[in-house]
Design brief:
The protein is mainly beta and about 120 residues long. It is built from no helices and eleven strands.
């Protein structure tokens, strides 16, 4: 099976920085794209940033210029470097991967359990 595990969340003051990491493991054949989503209480889950295996990136307007997504294809990992954090960035951050596993030929989305990010003012 495939597993995604996030790490790096925590409590940080406004204006600070934090780096989130996500490791994909298991019976992976190929990864098409990986990304980060977040969800705050009472709000819908939203895309924060995404990156393809070819390094094309996409960011939510609210984080452009502050967050940077990167990946290490050899390690099946994706990172989210967050700077100039604001209280409105407070949310549970989820790692996502669109990939093919060894036992299923079609593309499929996998999700991590989430990591909490709290930004105090």
């Amino acid at each position: 099976q495939v597993q995604l595990v996030e790490s790096g969340g925590g409590l940080v003051q406004a204006g600070g920085s934090l780096r989130l990491s996500c490791a994909a493991s298991g019976s992976i054949f190929s990864i098409n794209a990986m990304g980060w989503y977040r969800q705050a209480p009472g709000k819908l889950r939203e895309l924060v940033a995404a990156i393809t295996s070819g390094d094309s990136t996409n960011y939510a307007d609210s984080v452009k210029g502050r967050f940077t997504i990167s990946r290490d294809n050899a390690k099946n990992m994706v990172y989210l470097q967050m700077t100039s954090l604001k209280p409105e960035d407070t949310a549970v951050y989820y790692c996502n991967a669109n990939l093919k596993s060894l036992g299923f030929k079609r593309d499929f989305d996998y999700w991590g359990q989430g990591t909490h990010v709290t930004v105090s003012s």
